[in-house]
Amino acid sequence: MQVIKEEVSEIAVIVAKETVETDILIKKVGKEANIADKEKAEAEIAAKETNAITESALATKARADAALAEALPALDKAKAAVGGLQPGDISDMTKIGNPVQAVCVCIIVLMILIWEWKIKIKKIDYTDIDALRKTYKSGLPRLKPPANFLKFVAAWSTKQAKEIPETVKERVYAEIAKSQEVLGYPFEEKVYQSKGCLAASKLCSFINNIMFFNKTYLFVKPLQEEMEAATLLANTKQEELRVIEEKVAVLVAQVKELEDELQAAVEKKEKVEAEARAC
Known about the structure:
- By secondary structure, this protein is an all-alpha fold.
- It folds into two domains: 117 residues; 136 residues, no CATH class.
- Helices cover 84% and strands 0% of the residues.
- It is built from eight helices and no strands.
- Helix 2 crosses helix 5.
- 24% of the residues are buried.
């Protein structure tokens, strides 16, 4: 009988020990699980924020790409207009003794666009053909020799089309508008070609397309800068998210180990309790 009592006492001690250890594990698992849940919640918030920033960057990129898709063809058209001219075409135009108003306007506007920073062209009276021709002829030396002029204009369009001074653009738009109002016809390639001068019509096309490209590019540039900033931020957030997700993965693995350990402890405790009841 004494032996049985001693065995029962030993089993009771073991049960108590297993119970304490199991309770400790339960608390530990709960604590670690809470930490893991908190980190998971933070990871979800970070993921939403990162996704939103990434989507914003992609949306901005799409807008910039769409605007560039409009702008670049205009620049190509401007270059093609000049590229379609031969030195002889420019030479023929410069030899016209008394050019029509359209020819004068085209060269004057071109002078303002490219050389306004260097030569200040005075106020233009579009009703005075003699004054127009005088201003036109003052710009002819810049068109000679024709081959060099065409190369210069093509190179200028590549380097300067993005950075036309605001004052120059305002003057170009103002003179075009004024000429259209006084002369009664639009500043367009087909209309100017109908006036009998191929070179003037092509240069008209060049000016219009350069101005359109510049206007569109100025819309695109801040979008590109915004996209670059958003992309940089998105990359930073993605890296931060990666670190958080790695931390969560470690915590989840630790919780899983503790849960497995707890399960084993519970099974051991239940076994000891069953043995105690059997006594």
